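Workshop exercise sheet. Pairs work together: one partner reads the sequence aloud, the other fills in the structure field after running the prediction. Swap roles for the next sheet.
Pair: D.N. / O.F.
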Amino acid sequence: MEDASAAAIIDARGIVTGWSEGARRLTGYPSAEAVGRAARELLAEDVPPAAVTARSGTVMVRHRDGYLVGIRVSGCAVTGPDGEPGGYVITAAPPGRAETSLAGRAFQQASVSMSVFDTGQRYLRLNEAACHVMGVSEEALLGRHFPETVEEADHNRGFDWHLRHVVETGRPLRYESYTGAPALNREHAWVTEMWPVRDAAGELVGTALAAFDSTDQYWARQRLALLNEAAAAIGTTLDVVRTAEEVIGVVVPGFADFASVDLSDWVLGADEAPAVPAEAISLRRVAHGSVTEGTPEAAVHLGDADVYPSFSPIARAMREGRAVVAQAGEPSFMRWVAERNARAPGGRPYRLGAHSMMAVPLRARGTTLGVAVAVRIHQPDDYGEDDAVFAEELASRAAVCVDNARRFARERTTALALQHSLLPKGLPGQAAVEVAHRYLPSGSAAGIGGDWFDVIPLSGSRVALVVGDVVGHGIPSTATMGRLVTAVRTLADVDLPPDELLTHLDDLVTHLASDGDDVPELGATCLYAVYDPVARRLNLAAAGHPAPALVLPDGSARLIPMSAGPPLGVGGLPFEATELQLPEGSVVALYTDGLVEDRDRDVDHATAELCRALTVPADSLDALCDTVLKSVLPEEPGDDVALLLARTRALGTGEVATWDVAPDPAQVAAARQAATEQLTAWGLDEAAFVTELVVSELVTNAIRYGAPPVQLRLIRDRTLICEVSDGSSTSPHLRRAHQDDEGGRGLLLVAQLTQRWGSRQTTRGKTIWCEQPLPPLP
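Structure field:
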């Protein structure tokens, strides 16, 4: 038995009376030094009360060489002949003795870390897994207080608190932690179960625990959490670069110590996707980031292009369409790091710890847009298969967001180019008004809207001012806008009054709707105004559009009172025209609703701000446009904005000559004479010959085919305008005269001699007009 176990006999007074060879081996004390001594002198500390009560437990013995030894002991009482206690036989199993019972072997060989503590948080028992985690043998821990065996750290203090809490409450508990361990070179996730241990009498004598390593499950949950975070954090804007930056923000530092996103140039432009080349691949760096401030690991600057050789993981990922993992020691990884160091030697110290990288293609809708790279430098774990699966899932989500941003940018560019092609680039010079304009496309995710404006010269030195808005965004609204722009110009050429023009425009939109067009889903508004510089009158009508603002020469500003009318496409409702007299130098401001309407702004307040801004002194109309936009618009407008400012001019009596003509053919000669004299007064004798012929033909036609009253008017503007009005509503037209016809050549002659000609309906009949270029000034 001496070889199997250590034994000692202690009498009733606590004196050692027997000592085995096994006890000597265990403590270093020979029997001569142990027998006769008080057993207490051999102990390093008092025996726990629970061990005394149970007559078993772990005691701390000071070895003869001075170090502490934790020994599991059990005691058996010895009685004398009189039946009175005569002492105790104490036995202890030698450390490291193999378990013989099935339960003991199951405990010792369990795959989870299991330990037993007494009520003072001293180690009583550990299995092999627990010793592996702690990095020391069971003998080195037995009897020692837990805080003495670990470093001073928050997670260890938390573990000790839980041990004490089980003893204090007598209830089991479970908690999860992510901490390191003395013998492990990285942090692990643990699920720890602790429960109280009771003796046969129900007294709490210790605490047992089992700790499960849940690192794989922990990282699986972390990856799932990252995917959820990515769903919310990536794609918040429709900007390609910003989307790439959001990808970096998700993976660093949780998944990578350094990450980058490189895209093909065609993704950033308007080209179609080319076939992926088999050899070196050129990509442009759009975003990168790292756990180190300034991202010193990056060898490629933002915005720069880089060529990746075919052996690189990046090129392989692009070609193979899957995640490619490379670890330190592999040829491709070492060549990649060496190439990075050669390109940017300044970042070499920050790349020294790089041990694992992953290149993941960004594929969306069957097209590879670029590649994302993740590198681990400080994180000890290499990338594995689970990481590759996660990275591909994350990259697919990110790629869809990048592709959406690319498609939006392309559609926005197309819509903007189409819209700019439809808007007037250089407004024609004319005497009626001085104009300035601004168009601001929306930067919102909704896309480019259908706002538009136009300035259309009309006969008689008049001018049409137009502003409209197709509700909606993107190419469909821009295409609808193009139809309306063309229609308005065509109707303006007919020289219809504003209310009649809007009626015809409304009929057109209704017709498009009946043909299955999506115009009614978009809706449209329009304001059409005609200014006559001779009469200084403004005639305007609106189809669901905001009323323009008017600034008078005295500096006062107000909205023009008028009926808004129904939007275009409603059909069957009338439009009401408004006419007002304007002093010369008045400023009329036409605009779309994006200038004053927004979900976060009060329309009345914004309109008041518009009127106030229009009264601010400015050196020019262009400067006034900038002042208005700066004063009225928020920092980020939610809709397109079109602004058209027109300062009125007036043609004085010295530039206009009018004669009433009696309906008598004999008055044609008098009309010619009067026109010739007026040209002489204006210094336009060179135009007299053509003007005499034009006046003769037009006045003759008005007297012969029209109805009184007949009136002749000459206007000297940028061109010489000749107008003949009569009371008939029948419009003339060119026709081919046969050889034997006596008439029918007058309008053809007028068309050949003048720059342009036409007719317009008036409230009292019609007006035939023509324009001649003025002779050059000497």
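Discussion prompt: Residues 385-422 form the longest helix (38 residues). What would you look at next?
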